[in-house]
Amino acid sequence: MAFLKFLGTAGARFVMIEQLRSSGGVWVSFKDTNVLIDPGPGSIVRCAASRPKLNPTKLDGIILTHKHLDHSNDINVMIEAMTEGGFKKRGVVFCPTDALGEDSIILKYAANFPERIEALKPNSNYAVKDFSFQTSMRHIHPAETYGLKFNLGDTSVGLLSDTKFFKELGSFYKTDILIISVVFFEPRQGIDHLCLADAEEIIRLTQPKKAILTHFGRTMLRAKPHIQAEALTKRLGIEVVAANDGMSLRNFRLT
Ligand SMILES: [Zn+2]
Ligand SMILES: [Zn+2]
To answer: What distance in angstroms lies between residue 131's CA and the mean position of ligand 2's atoms?
Structure first.
């Protein structure tokens, strides 16, 4: 079995705070392995509300692209779930180095629950059971941030997390399915996030079979992501869709 499910599509702070969209991250199941990427606020609630339910005690790994709250808030409760309340030492947590140490987002008492905690480095490979992934170069974002690339069977998936635009993104993220965090509708100087025009440029450079926009800020929501996605599809001749909370991708051919 392989599927990927959006437990949230909220981007900027206010969309998260007002829960205009959920902020639960992305759940990936591949063969016998379950991983949760960026469990933001409400991730545990979204798992329970998911139909069919997603059971966080079955997680094998938790991956943070960076430590900002909209990506990491539920990390401790998810560690508790993955390790059955800390009674079963299991699972792996992957996060950038600046999410650990003195200002760790993982509570001290929970840090010993998982089998291991791995600090992410740029352009490196990691694995937990059947799921392996590669980190991108360091993104341009106030916290140490990496995007991810992984294969679900013969389909390559890129998850482009928060960053300011830079053209090297176009070479790393050449994948079949590319998920892009698009916070702003219009360009905003001085804030390290992508706007819609940046996403368009990245799709043009990477030529995926399918691009998925997510992590929407308020201006993107006002501009109706699905309408913007349709316009991009027409302009680029590439299927672009806007993610919704609860949306899932299935039917990956397992190899
Ligand atoms: Zn974010
Ligand atoms: Zn961020």
So the answer is: 24
E strands along 79-202, which residues?
92-96, 116-120, 125-128, 131-138, 146-152, 155-160, 177-181
Between the CA of 68 and the centroid of ligand 2 the distance, in Å, is: 5
Q: How far is the CA of 13 from the centre of ligand 1 (A)?
A: 8
Going from N- to C-terminal start, the domains of the chain cover: 2-122+133-245
CATH of span 2-122+133-245? 3.60.15.10
Which residues have a beta carbon within 5 Å of ligand 2, which is an ion? Answer: 68, 162
> Mind listing the pLDDT tens digit for each residue in 109-163?
999 999 999 999 999 999 999 999 999 999 999 999 999 999 999 999 999 999 9
- Give 255's pLDDT tier (boundaries 50, 70, 90): low
CA of 48 to the centre of ligand 1 (A): 23
Structure confidence by residue, pLDDT tens digits, 25-69: 999 999 999 999 999 999 999 999 999 999 999 999 999 999 999
DSSP β-bridge partners for residue 37: 26, 63
pTM: 0.97
What six digits make up the tokens of 164?
Answer: 């300011």
Contact (Cβ atoms closer than 8 angstroms) between residue 142 and residue 192: yes
